Amino acid sequence: MPLHYDGSDVKIYKVVMGDMGNNGYLLVCPETNKSIIIDAPFEPEKLLAVAKGTEVEIILITHNHYDHVDGLETIRNETNALVGAHSAGAEELPFPPDIYLADGDIISAGRVNVRAIHTPGHTAGATCYLVGEHLFTGDTLFPGGPGATRTSEALHQSIRSITKKLLVLPGDTAVYPGHGDDTTIAIANEEYEVFSHRTHPPDLCGNVSWLSS
Questions:
Q1: How far apart are alpha carbons 160 and 121 in whole angstroms?
Q2: What three-state secondary structure class fits 184?
Q3: Residue 176, SS3?
Q4: Which of 8, 9, 154, 204 is deepest in the core (most CB within 10 A)?
Q5: pTM (2 d.p.)
Q6: To 10 degrees, the CA torsion angle through 36, 169, 117, 92?
Q7: What are the 10-residue block averages of pLDDT along the chain, 213 residues in total?
Q8: Where would I find the beta strands (DSSP E) of the chain?
């Protein structure tokens, strides 16, 4: 079993899925066995196998890109769970969410409480999810930089989201992105500090690295 964190407050399972290396997450309340899924990538059967034996109450979507929602219909049909996503861009999901999330909303399953943090930039509706000292960032923040953006305006918006809403969290907050390895807010702050002291072209966007862009 891909148990990633085993705490008295929450158990976190991280499942690598599909040929784009997406991370799907399962959060389980140790007391009630109720659970929350974050993102529904390709190969949903992998996440469903891990969730088997738990009571999945809600599926939270970080953003509407196809590699994060390709398995959504399969997971919803298998679990009968509600789907939650930000309203911006929700029309591009495979079907309308049951819950339209706004910044600061709290979603609960058993004793696990998740706070939605709206972080537009990578997409208009990009949303991160905070559970205690664990932050699920989708494609908003990765080790080494922000998620890809198509315009300089989107990059600036993403940087505002990251600096004002994510980098202000405690340094020991673990960051679980939508692809790849984990990082921490402390490391992300150190990397961003390098970026912030460098001059950048006005049209900078795309795949940006805190340390080399």
A1: 9
A2: strand
A3: strand
A4: 154
A5: 0.97
A6: -80
A7: 92 97 98 98 98 97 97 98 96 96 98 98 98 98 97 98 98 98 98 97 96 95
A8: 3-6, 11-17, 22-28, 34-38, 55-60, 82-86, 99-101, 106-109, 112-118, 127-131, 134-138, 141-142, 145-146, 174-177, 183-184
The per-residue pLDDT for 1 is 57
Domain boundaries, the chain: 3-196
Going by C-alpha positions, the residue among 63, 99, 62 that lies closest to residue 83 is 99
Give CA separation, 77 vs 2, 82, 83, in Å: 23, 10, 11
**Smallest Cα–Cα separation from 107: which of 11, 49, 38?**
38
Amino acid at 125: G
pLDDT at 188: 98
Fold of 3-196: Metallo-beta-lactamase; Chain A (3.60.15)
Q: How far apart are the first and last CA of the chain?
A: 38
* Helix residue spans in the chain (DSSP H): 44-51, 66-69, 72-79, 152-161, 185-196
